[in-house]
Every structure is written in C-alpha cells, then in structure tokens.
Amino acid sequence: HVVNGDDDNVEIHASTEDLIMTSFQSSIDSKLNTLPKPLLNFVLRQAFGMMWSMLLRVAEEVRDGKRPEHAKAISAKREVLYDWVDERVGLMLEMK
Length: 96
Known about the structure:
Blueprint: E1 2-4, E2 9-13, E3 21-25, H1 37-63, H2 68-76, H3 78-94
Antiparallel strand pairs: 1-2, 2-3
C-alpha cells in the first residue's frame, strides 16, 4: 500500500513479513499555475503510485519466470549494472 508523505514524498510499504521501505522524491516545475497545487499533487501521486505498481508487477513476473526475455536481459547486464546496484543497496542497508 502507498503512504503519502509531505508534498514531494511518497513512501511505499509492502504488507508482508519482509518489509521494504522505499522513498521516492521528485521535484516538478510544471508551470501550470491554472491548476490548484493540491489537485496537481494528487494527480502526480496517483501517477507515481501506478508507475510503481506496474514496475513491481513486472519485477514479480520476472521473479516468477513469466517474463523470460526480461530475465535474459537482466542476466546479460548482471556484471555491468545489477551487481553494482546490489553492492550499493547492501552498503546503504549497512548504514542503518
């Protein structure tokens, strides 16, 4: 489920035993002075929430073997990208 933070932050928490807290922060200069800021914030939060849900669904499908082409692309980039990401995430989690 999605927990809304302040104006620019959205936190997403899994509702299982193994919790992962993710914080997503963005700044957008929309130049849309005609829309009220609360309405713009609501629309953007909904859009980011939907994008996160779609990304999570694809990740779960890769994990479950339903997207072999994605798994193949990830394997091909394992050394140059994903190993680095795993290492960085591990270091960030050790900082707690």
